[in-house]
Specification:
By secondary structure, this protein is of the alpha/beta class. It has 5 helices and 15 strands.
Length: 213
């Protein structure tokens, strides 16, 4: 089966095999959140992006190999409803940006900032700070694979509650820190809904800026 990233709450996960990394995408919870389990194919070590909801379904994804980290992309509650339980059951350490950390139900074991790396097994993820949706929103980059939380979706940047200052900040960060430096083939894995690529979204950047959301 070819990976599409089109998953539904209550439905099966979609799995993508990359050199050195396996990505498992699962839709969970009443807000149709995406959770991503990343596994180093060389060591088996795992990392979970957004323990959003339905802890039992997330735990069922995790193999007998160690879950080293749980990364929370930002502080909004729909992205961490299962965080405390999954962390407790697995013993995994938790990670978030320091600006969003105080709002989380568990104090992060590690905080990360723009340009930091998160390593599990032989895999390293680059942290990209994208300000605007929340002060401490982060994306994670592995080669040409980008996990964006709620900062970038098919069709636009994340919700900034019609605040022009916040929109300008998020739009600027997304353009400068993502579109200006990464190629069109970069695959985007968002916090909700379907995946996209930077190439599919790039022509719409002027439209996004003009509309202000």
């Amino acid at each position: 089966m070819t990976y599409t990233g089109d998953v539904q709450v209550g439905g099966p996960a979609d799995v993508r095999e990359l050199p050195g990394l396996t990505i498992t995408k699962l839709a969970v919870g009443p807000f149709d959140n995406n959770a991503y389990l990343l596994r180093c194919t060389e060591t088996g070590d795992e990392l979970l992006i957004d323990a959003a909801a339905e802890a039992d379904r997330l735990l069922a994804l995790i193999t007998d190999e160690p879950l080293k980290w749980i990364v929370t992309t930002h502080r909004h509650g729909d992205h961490w409803q299962a965080l405390e339980q999954v962390a407790k059951v697995t013993g995994a350490a938790t990670i978030a940006h320091p600006l969003d950390a105080p709002a989380l139900p568990v104090k992060p074991d590690k905080t990360v900032s723009h340009g930091d790396t998160i390593t599990f097994g032989r895999v390293s993820l680059e942290v990209i700070h994208l300000r605007g949706h929340t002060p401490g929103s982060i994306a994670l980059l592995y080669g040409t694979h980008l996990f964006t939380g709620d900062s970038l979706f098919p069709g636009g940047v994340g919700n900034t509650q019609k605040d022009p200052t916040r929109f300008d900040q998020l739009y600027t960060d997304v353009v400068e820190r993502i579109f200006d430096r990464l190629p069109d083939e970069t695959w985007v894995y968002p916090g909700h809904g379907k995946d996209t690529t930077l190439g599919a979204e790039r022509p719409s950047l002027p439209e996004w800026k003009a509309r202000g959301w």
